[in-house]
């Protein structure tokens, strides 16, 4: 019999009940909650007179709607200027109080983006099942946890039953061999993968990322890769547990301690795919071939290396692709432009659940240190992923480096990644963004998003247009 | 949940691949704490010329004339014909809520994003996968024939065209059962409470750290 993949093992260890029709009841260890996708779930519980199954399995924090200016944040939820956003955050506070769920409220230093907070607290652990009403829950797969986004009805289902009705996915291995070049980061790797397999390439699969280039990444880098598995269509991204994982988790506030820690570490050593495990599909990339990536269009698969020409619709052979490219060209205002450097940038955003962790901020700070943001830019903002990331960055003096270079240093939240708060693009504005989606209107009505790594966003902020960060740092 | 058994309605063709959930319902409308009222903002940026605001009255807003749902012949449509990878992007259930609230009962496409596909079933909305060729054929027929209606028979797992041509589709047995009977799946799962408790009792022996109190 063939060995098991990491996904197979996680599935098996959480199987409550296998049904004849192929569906299964899967046990959920951790549910993360935020203000946008939970209110209707709590309302559903109330309507049916139901209670959460197990309170200690939930952790909540507001992130999507929270303002990121120091001024608005001073008075907590009362400082939110937008009345509709304020109601949503207040509703989360009220629901968590009513049902007894642990919440890091806006004024708590531990507040931040759910996908930054969970791992930072050690709430996310290897071998767990983790869900959240947010597609970027795949992030937590970096810990060898089975993690995926769910809709609000399922948020309610997990609250009420601690389980989900699931069908097993197929297994895909994406292997990135060899070493990465200087200034080629986890973000470039995952964008290159999406460019290779497309935004639907992983649909129906749990993707395990492996190979030397992946194993060499820090936990922050691994989270960036798994975070964007969903942008390749896969709800689940996974990376095997190794010493890097264990070292990151050790001594986190919610991580097991004492005997339980030793017991856990031993159990976690099995969270790797067996050598003879069978994958339904295997994709291989060479790490050394990956260059800094930039998206040019309105889907994450519309991505090229910094030195490539922007692909033209008329060169596409498939009719649906040609039409999609033509629509993207028009939306992005690319007429008359040949390369990425021809695009004049208006704003730069460094943040989001993809790239707002300490390593991301260090990487951006290293590039802007001693330099100045281009005068042509309207704005460049840095939004740390949590209050604790912010505090650590300030301890390291990164905030000073950013502000001296002309970038704004903000309070933690999702911010301009999806513009549910006041941070957004104006119509037609181009933004170099470290977030995860470049969809039409994502960062603001008519806004034009280009996805990049923190180092590439920092380099773009200095130059005012896209430039290979390797070239910029030479001067 | 409202059951879905058999439905006949006007089909509207949305000829665009990779329609993402930000297109289906833009983020500013996610601030609502209700499940209803999203229909007027379905496809807001594709449908209106201006930027929509939450709680805004939408009659009188400038319409994009070329958008399919703004055309006279597709008024009252309840079946959306779409291209591949429909519903990609975020997990927002507001996307099926908006389609449902608008009056859509089914979406037919060559492929769907996983989370969106799953969310549809929780809301009495039936996502149907047909082959690229079949979807292509339906696009051609609907565009050539004003008032074109399709019939969807979930029990028989068939889409029936006006010509009488039938297209079979696959659907998960459990999801089909829930949809046909309008079942609340939380209620169904709670019938298995003993199995869930038995799992917990076993699991706490091998992984006790997962059950430690989390309050700090």
From TrEMBL, chain A:
Its EC number is 4.2.1.33. Keywords: 4Fe-4S, Amino-acid biosynthesis, Branched-chain amino acid biosynthesis, Iron, Iron-sulfur, Leucine biosynthesis, Lyase, Metal-binding. Residues 8-464 form the Aconitase/3-isopropylmalate dehydratase large subunit alpha/beta/alpha domain. The keyword 4Fe-4S applies. InterPro entries: 3-IsopropMal_deHydase_lsu (IPR004430), Acnase/IPM_dHydase_lsu_aba_1/3 (IPR015931), Acoase/IPM_deHydtase_lsu_aba (IPR001030), Aconitase_4Fe-4S_BS (IPR018136), Aconitase_4Fe-4S_dom (IPR036008), IPM_dehydratase_rel_enz (IPR050067), IPMI_cat (IPR033941). Pathway: Amino-acid biosynthesis; L-leucine biosynthesis; L-leucine from 3-methyl-2-oxobutanoate: step 2/4. It catalyses: (2R,3S)-3-isopropylmalate = (2S)-2-isopropylmalate. One of its GO terms (molecular function) is metal ion binding. It is an enzyme of class 4 (lyase). Its cofactor is [4Fe-4S] cluster. Binds 1 [4Fe-4S] cluster per subunit. [4Fe-4S] cluster binds at residues 353, 414, 417. One of its GO terms (biological process) is L-leucine biosynthetic process. It comes from the Bacteria. Belongs to the aconitase/IPM isomerase family. LeuC type 1 subfamily. Catalyzes the isomerization between 2-isopropylmalate and 3-isopropylmalate, via the formation of 2-isopropylmaleate. Heterodimer of LeuC and LeuD. This is 3-isopropylmalate dehydratase large subunit. It comes from Marinomonas aquimarina.
Automatic annotation (TrEMBL), chain B:
Keywords: Amino-acid biosynthesis, Branched-chain amino acid biosynthesis, Leucine biosynthesis, Lyase. Residues 1-132 form the Aconitase A/isopropylmalate dehydratase small subunit swivel domain. It is an enzyme of class 4 (lyase). Heterodimer of LeuC and LeuD. Catalyzes the isomerization between 2-isopropylmalate and 3-isopropylmalate, via the formation of 2-isopropylmaleate. Pathway: Amino-acid biosynthesis; L-leucine biosynthesis; L-leucine from 3-methyl-2-oxobutanoate: step 2/4. GO terms for cellular component: 3-isopropylmalate dehydratase complex. One of its GO terms (biological process) is L-leucine biosynthetic process. Belongs to the LeuD family. LeuD type 1 subfamily. Its EC number is 4.2.1.33. Gene3D superfamilies: Aconitase, domain 4. It catalyses: (2R,3S)-3-isopropylmalate = (2S)-2-isopropylmalate. The keyword Amino-acid biosynthesis applies. InterPro entries: 3-IsopropMal_deHydase_ssu, Aconitase/3IPM_dehydase_swvl, AconitaseA/IPMdHydase_ssu_swvl, IPMI_Swivel, LeuD. The lineage of its organism: Bacteria, Pseudomonadati, Pseudomonadota, Gammaproteobacteria, Oceanospirillales. This is 3-isopropylmalate dehydratase small subunit. GO terms for molecular function: 3-isopropylmalate dehydratase activity.
């Amino acid at each position: 019999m063939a060995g098991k993949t990491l996904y197979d093992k996680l599935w098996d260890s959480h199987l409550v009940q296998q049904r004849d029709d192929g569906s299964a009841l899967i046990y959920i260890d951790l549910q993360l909650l935020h203000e946008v996708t939970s209110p209707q779930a709590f309302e559903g519980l109330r309507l049916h007179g139901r209670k959460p199954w197990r309170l200690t399995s939930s952790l909540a924090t507001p992130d999507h709607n929270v303002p990121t200016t120091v001024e608005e944040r001073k008075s907590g939820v009362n400082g939110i200027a937008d009345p509709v956003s304020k109601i949503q955050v207040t509703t989360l506070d009220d629901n968590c109080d009513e049902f007894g769920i642990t919440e890091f409220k806006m004024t708590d230093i531990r507040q931040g983006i759910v996908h930054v907070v969970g791992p930072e607290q050690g709430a996310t652990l290897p071998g767990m099942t983790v869900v959240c009403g947010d597609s970027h829950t795949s992030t937590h797969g970096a810990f060898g946890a089975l993690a995926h986004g769910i809709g609000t009805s399922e948020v309610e289902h997990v609250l009420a039953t601690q389980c989900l009705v699931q069908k097993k996915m197929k297994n895909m291995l994406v292997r990135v061999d060899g070493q990465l070049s200087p200034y080629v980061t986890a973000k470039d790797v995952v964008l290159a993968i999406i460019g290779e397999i497309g935004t639907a390439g992983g649909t129906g699969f749990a993707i395990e990322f492996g190979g030397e280039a992946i194993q060499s990444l820090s936990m922050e880098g691994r989270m960036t890769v798994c975070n964007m598995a969903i942008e390749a269509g896969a709800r689940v991204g996974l990376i095997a547990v190794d010493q890097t994982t264990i070292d990151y988790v050790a001594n986190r506030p919610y991580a097991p301690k004492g005997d339980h820690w030793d017991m856990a570490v031993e159990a976690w050593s099995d969270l790797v795919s067996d050598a003879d495990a069978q994958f339904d599909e295997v994709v291989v990339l060479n790490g050394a071939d990956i260059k800094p990536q930039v998206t040019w269009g309105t889907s994450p698969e519309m991505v090229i290396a910094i030195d490539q020409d922007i692909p033209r619709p008329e060169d596409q052979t498939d009719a649906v692709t040609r039409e999609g490219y033509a629509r993207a060209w028009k939306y992005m205002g690319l007429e008359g432009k040949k390369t990425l450097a021809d695009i004049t940038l208006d704003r730069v955003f460094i943040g989001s659940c993809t790239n707002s962790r300490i390593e991301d901020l260090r990487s951006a700070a290293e590039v802007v240190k001693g330099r100045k943001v281009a005068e042509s830019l309207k704005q460049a903002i840095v939004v740390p992923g949590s209050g604790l990331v912010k505090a650590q960055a300030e301890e390291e003096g990164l905030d000073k480096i950013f502000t001296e270079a002309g970038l704004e240093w903000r309070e933690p939240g999702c911010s301009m990644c999806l513009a549910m708060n006041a941070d957004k693009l104006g119509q037609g504005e181009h933004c170099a963004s470290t977030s995860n989606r470049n969809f039409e209107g994502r960062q603001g009505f008519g806004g034009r998003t280009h996805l990049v790594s923190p180092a590439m966003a920092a380099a773009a902020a200095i130059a005012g247009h896209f430039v290979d960060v390797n070239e910029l740092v030479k001067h | 949940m409202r059951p879905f058994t058999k439905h006949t309605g006007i089909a509207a063709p949305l000829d665009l691949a990779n329609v993402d959930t930000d297109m289906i319902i833009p983020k500013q409308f996610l601030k609502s704490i209700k499940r209803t009222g999203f229909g007027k903002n379905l496809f807001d940026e594709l449908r209106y010329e201006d930027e929509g605001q939450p709680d805004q009255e939408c009659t009188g807003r400038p319409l994009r004339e070329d958008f399919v749902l703004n055309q006279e012949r597709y008024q009252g449509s309840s079946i959306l014909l779409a291209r591949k990878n429909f519903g990609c992007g975020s997990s927002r259930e507001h996307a099926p809520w908006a389609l449902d609230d608008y009056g859509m009962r089914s979406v037919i496409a060559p492929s769907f994003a996983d989370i969106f596909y799953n969310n549809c079933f929780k809301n009495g909305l039936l996502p149907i996968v047909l082959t690229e060729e079949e979807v292509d054929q339906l696009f051609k027929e609907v565009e050539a024939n004003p008032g074109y209606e399709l019939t969807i028979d979930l029990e028989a797992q068939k889409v029936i065209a006006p010509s009488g041509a039938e297209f079979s589709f696959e659907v998960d047995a459990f999801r089909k059962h829930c949809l046909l009977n309008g079942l609340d799946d939380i209620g169904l799962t709670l019938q298995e409470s003993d199995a869930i408790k038995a799992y917990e009792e076993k699991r706490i022996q091998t992984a006790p750290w997962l059950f430690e109190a989390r309050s700090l």
